[in-house]
Design goal:
The structure is a homodimer.
Chain A: H1 2-10, H2 14-39, E1 47-51, H3 57-70, E2 75-79, H4 88-93, E3 99-103, H5 109-112, H6 115-133, E4 140-144, H7 146-151, H8 157-165, E5 172-176, H9 182-187, E6 190-198
Parallel strand pairs in A: 1-5, 1-6, 2-3, 2-4, 4-5
Subcellular location (chains A, B): Cytoplasm
Keywords (chains A, B): ATP-binding, Cobalamin biosynthesis, Cytoplasm, Nucleotide-binding, Porphyrin biosynthesis, Transferase
Pathway (chains A, B): Cofactor biosynthesis; adenosylcobalamin biosynthesis; adenosylcobalamin from cob(II)yrinate a,c-diamide: step 2/7
Chain lengths: 213, 213
C-alpha cells in the first residue's frame, strides 16, 4: 500500500504533490481540532486571568463584555486602581442596563501618593466584587486591574481565591493586571500572558482615544 | 546630607522606615511614568498587531471597538477565515450604525477543505479591508485573523503593508491572528504576543458563550 502510494506520487507533477500534501495536512489538522473539541465537553463558568506587561489585558476583558452582551447576558465590571481619567469603554458600557459598572480606584497608585486612600478604595471595590461573585444573575464578572491591588496587598489574596472558587457554577470571571499571583494562576482555567513586543509610546506616540483611552 | 539622612533614619521605627521607602519608591515610579508620558507627545493613528497562541487577540481588538464607540468614532471590522458559527461580538456590534461589520470567511480553513474557496473568500475580505483603509471617516479598522490569511498566502503581504502604511494619518488599525509575519511586526507601532499559560479546553471545558463565542 505504501509502495503503491509512492509509485503513484511519482507520476504526479510537483504542483499536484504539493496540493496532495496540503490536503493531507489540512485533513490532519481538522482531525486534531475535532478530537480536542470532542474531548472538551464540559459546560461551566470559567475563570480567566490576563497578565503580563503587554497591551490587551483590559481590552480583551472588555471584548468579552461585548460578546456576553451579544448573548443578552448580565455583566458586572469593577475597575480597580483606575478612575483618574474617563475611558472610552466606561462611557460605552454604561449605556447598557445589562452592565453594572463600578469604577472605584482613585487613579493609579503612583498618582495618589496616599497609601491609606488607595487601600480604602481597593477595599470598597473588593466588597462590590464579592457581591457580583455571589449573584447568580450575573454571567460575566470583570475584575479589571485586580492583580495590581493584590500585588500591593490592598486586597487579600485568600479572600479573592475563596470568592472566585465559590461563585455560581455558570458564572465567568476575568481578572486582569500584570503580575498575577501564582495561587490565582493555579485556580484559573485560562491564563494568558500578554507580552510586549513593542509599544507605540516607545516611539513617542501618546495614548490614543479608541486604543488606550 | 547623606550621613544626616542615615542618622535620621536610624531613629525611625521599622514601620516608619518601611513607609518612607514605600513613599520614595512610589514617588520615583511617578517620576518615571511622568517622564515617559512627557516624551510620548505624538498624536496619530497607530497600527497594532495581536499575535501569539494565547487567548485574547480578537477579544482585545473588540474591546478597542467598544472604546472607540465610547468616543463616537466610526469603526470598520473585517473578520477573515471565520464565519462558520455566529459569535457574540458580531451579534452585538451589528446593532451599531457606527460599525461596518463584514464577515467574509467560510469557516476555518481546516473546516472547508477547499483551498480555492478559501482564497476567493480571503480575496473578497481583503478588497473590503482596502476600502476601509482608504476611508478617512473610519477611525478604527479591525482586520481580525488577517495573519492566518497571510500565513497561507491567501492575501499578499506586500499589498497589506502598502495599504496599512498609506492609510489616513489618524486612523488606527488592529491586525490579529497567530503567526504575524515579521515584515508586519516591523511596520507596526504596538505589537503584543498573547502567550497561553493554560487554557480551559485542556481541562475538558468546551468553548463558552461570552468567553470564546
Amino acid at each position: 500500500m505504501s509502495d503503491k502510494h509512492l509509485s503513484d506520487s511519482s507520476e504526479l507533477t510537483e504542483e499536484q504533490q504539493r496540493e496532495e500534501r496540503y490536503l493531507a495536512r489540512m485533513k490532519r489538522k481538522k482531525e486534531i481540532i475535532d478530537q480536542s473539541i470532542a474531548r472538551a465537553d464540559q459546560d461551566r463558568g470559567v475563570c480567566l486571568v490576563h497578565t503580563g506587561n503587554g497591551k490587551g489585558k483590559s481590552s480583551s476583558a472588555f471584548g468579552m463584555v461585548a460578546r456576553a452582551l451579544g448573548h443578552d447576558m448580565q455583566v458586572g465590571v469593577v475597575q480597580f486602581i483606575k478612575g483618574a481619567f474617563s475611558t472610552g469603554e466606561e462611557a460605552f458600557f454604561r449605556r447598557f442596563p445589562e452592565v453594572q459598572y463600578y469604577v472605584m480606584g482613585e487613579g493609579f497608585t503612583w498618582e495618589t501618593q496616599d497609601k491609606e486612600r488607595d487601600i480604602a478604595a481597593a477595599t470598597k471595590a473588593w466588597k462590590q466584587s464579592e457581591k457580583l461573585l455571589n449573584d447568580e444573575n450575573i454571567t460575566l464578572v470583570v475584575l479589571d486591574e485586580l492583580n495590581i491591588a493584590l500585588k500591593y496587598k490592598y486586597v487579600d489574596l485568600q479572600q479573592v481565591i475563596k470568592a472566585v472558587e465559590s461563585r455560581p457554577v455558570n458564572q465567568h470571571v476575568v481578572i486582569t493586571g500584570r503580575g498575577a499571583p501564582q495561587a490565582l494562576i493555579d485556580i484559573a482555567d485560562t491564563v494568558t500572558e500578554m507580552q510586549v513586543v513593542k509599544h507605540a509610546y516607545q516611539a513617542g506616540i501618546k495614548a490614543q482615544k479608541g486604543v488606550e483611552l
